[in-house]
């Protein structure tokens, strides 16, 4: 409708930027593993794709877990959240390892934001341990273990989504 404000993307609503480098991400994943090592052992790691694949590989390597499965969920088209779509559920083998409820399984994702994705996986595997590297306040209650809390009005930029580029100086004309 004419005059109506355009819908803001989640990233525009978030406003602040929190860029994460590969080094920082690796360090944060290792810190997450230190905490998870106190909770395990785990039979298998379940990565929530795609963002959960990178931390899941690092965590599984540190914890010596070699069985890794995926739950493929999509909701954000770049930075706009739509309906959650489960594109692929867990394998029967991993489900069996978790006794049907996820007991002894470790679910890993890069972050929780609104918590919608987290809620869906918790409903699928109520007894699993759910870990993320970053957590925003709305999603935080759904996570068992995380490393860094980031405010709800911040957008996290992951290293696989970004590239180095020129940034002008803060002060006009200082370049
Ligand atoms: O707490 P929520 O508001 O549900 O958001 C968190 C989810 O959003 C992102 O995934 P996305 O759906 O963008 O897919 P991707 O992992 O393939 O990038 C992120 O990796 C989490 O899985
Ligand atoms: Mg994701």
TrEMBL record:
Residues where xanthine binds: 113, 156
Chief location of this protein within or outside the cell: membrane
GO molecular function: magnesium ion binding; xanthine phosphoribosyltransferase activity
One of the GO biological process terms: GMP salvage
Residues in the signal sequence: none
Needed cofactors: Mg(2+)
UniProt-annotated location(s): Cell membrane
Binding positions for 5-phospho-alpha-D-ribose 1-diphosphate per the UniProt entry: 50-51, 109-117
One Pfam family hit: Pribosyltran
Domain of life the protein comes from: Bacteria
Record keyword Disulfide bond present: no
Reactions this protein catalyses: GMP + diphosphate = guanine + 5-phospho-alpha-D-ribose 1-diphosphate; XMP + diphosphate = xanthine + 5-phospho-alpha-D-ribose 1-diphosphate; IMP + diphosphate = hypoxanthine + 5-phospho-alpha-D-ribose 1-diphosphate
Alphabetized InterPro entries for the sequence: PRTase-like (IPR029057), PRTase_dom (IPR000836), Xanthine_Guanine_PRibTrfase (IPR023747)
Enzyme Commission identifier(s): 2.4.2.22
Chain sites annotated for binding guanine: 113, 156
Binding site for Mg(2+): 110
CDD domains in UniProt: PRTases_typeI
EC category name: transferase
Domain Phosphoribosyltransferase stretches: 21-166
Family recorded in the similarity comment: Belongs to the purine/pyrimidine phosphoribosyltransferase family. XGPT subfamily.
Task performed by this protein: Purine salvage pathway enzyme that catalyzes the transfer of the ribosyl-5-phosphate group from 5-phospho-alpha-D-ribose 1-diphosphate (PRPP) to the N9 position of the 6-oxopurines guanine and xanthine to form the corresponding ribonucleotides GMP (guanosine 5'-monophosphate) and XMP (xanthosine 5'-monophosphate), with the release of PPi. To a lesser extent, also acts on hypoxanthine.
Protein name (Swiss-Prot/TrEMBL): Xanthine-guanine phosphoribosyltransferase
Source organism: Bradyrhizobium japonicum
UniProt lineage: Bacteria, Pseudomonadati, Pseudomonadota, Alphaproteobacteria, Hyphomicrobiales
Gene giving rise to this polypeptide: gpt
